[in-house]
C-alpha cells in the first residue's frame, strides 16, 4: 500500500484551533473565532479561537498559580530534564503532523518543514533540557567571615510572542530556555500561523509538563498580544517580530509593571563579495539561496548584496542562471524549494516594494511578478534589482519577501559604511581570501552575527540577535538563559 501524498494528508488532517489554557483545549471566553486561510491555495483551515484580554487574564492566572505552587519550578533539575527530553522526543515522533501544519499554515515547502523546522525546534528543546543540570550557580570571593552566594531563579510568568515565518522554531527558541529554568509560559503565536504552537503545547503536556505551566493563546496582536504586554502579572516578554511592534511592546511594558522585554526584530542584512572571494560559485549560490530561502521571509535574509565592481557582471550572470530553480512551486510537493507568501497582506506589501523599486529607478533584472495566480494562493517570483541607490525604499526597509538589491563597490571601507547605513544590525556576510580584510570587516560591521565565506550557518550553541533596531538580548546558546532568570545575591554572616 502506497504512502499517502502530502495533499492526501492535508485533506484528511484534523485541525483544532482552540486555545490551550491550564492543560485543556478551550474556546475563547467571548466565543469569537477567526478563519485561518492557507496561503497555498486559499483553502480554509478552520476557525481559530480569537483570544483577547479576558483569555489572557485566565492564562496569566493559571500560569501564576503554577509558578507559585512550584509544580514545575520545584521539580528537581533532573526531573525537568527528563520531561523536556521526552518533549523533544515526542516532537520528532509527531514530525510529519507538525511539518504539515507548518506548511499549510504559512506556505513554506514541506521539504524544509520536515528537514529544518521540526528537527531544529526539537533539537532546541533537547539542548536546553540537557543544559538544565549543567549550569551552576556561583560563590563570590569574600573574606572568611562571610559567604556570598550568587544564584539564578526563574523570573516567573513569561510571555512569548512569536512571528509567522518560523512559527515552531521561533517558539522553541523562547519556550525551551524559559521552561528549562522553571518559568511558566504563555505563548502567543501569530494569527497567521497558530497551528503548530497549539499542537506543541499538547505534546508538552503529553510529555509530562504540568497543566498551567505552558499555555497558548491564539489571537491578534492588538488584542491578545497587547493584553500580554500590558498585563501587570507578566514578568517578562520574549518577542520576535517587526521593529515597529517591538517598540510598541516596550511602551506597553513601561506603562504597566516595567516587565523586562527581550526583542529580536527586523533586519536588512548586507552581504559583501570582494573580488578575491575564494570561490565565486559558492558565493553566488549562498547569496541566492539565502535570500530566497523561506520565500525571503527571514529577518536575517541577505537582502542587500554588495559586489566589487570587477566581478559584478560575472556574478550577476551566474546568479541569473540560478533563478529558474527558485521559481515558486506547490509547497506540498517534496521537490519544491520556494513556496507561498504567508497571506494576501504580505503579498501586497512585497509587490508594493517591487513597484517602488521600479518607480525609483532601480533596474529589474529578474522576476517582479506574482506567480501561480491560478491556484488561489500567494506567490511571488524571485526578484533581483541592480543599480540600487542606498536611499531607495528597497535599500532601507525590510521587505520580508524574495527581493534582492544589488550594489557595486570599489572600496571595501565604503561598502562597509553603506552596509552599516540602515537602522538595522542583525547579520552580515563578507567574502574574501584575505584574512586581514575578513577581520577588518567583521569588526567594523555593526551586526550581531558576521558570516565569512559562507552565509547563514546556524547552531543552537551560538547566540542569535542584533544591534541597533534589530533588537536586544540573544536567543539560543546558554546566553538565552539570562533572559529568563533573576540573579540573586545572598550574604551569610559566618562570624
Structure notes:
This protein has 495 residues and is of the alpha/beta class. 38% of the residues lie in helices and 20% in strands. Helix 15 (435-444) links the parallel strand 20 and strand 21 (449-452). The radius of gyration is 23 Å and the shape is globular.
Short description:
This protein is of the alpha/beta class.
List keywords for this structure.
495 residues, alpha/beta, five-stranded parallel β-sheet, 15 helices, 20% strand, globular
Number of strands: 23
The strand order across the widest sheet is 14-17-18-13-12-20-21
Our count of helices gives 15
Silhouette:
globular
Summed over residues and divided by their number, the pLDDT gives a mean of 97
Low-confidence parts, pLDDT < 50 over ≥5 residues? none
Describe the sheet with the most strands: 7 strands, mixed
Q: What Rg do the Cα atoms give?
A: 23 Å
Strand content: 15-25%
CA-to-CA gap between the ends? 78 Å
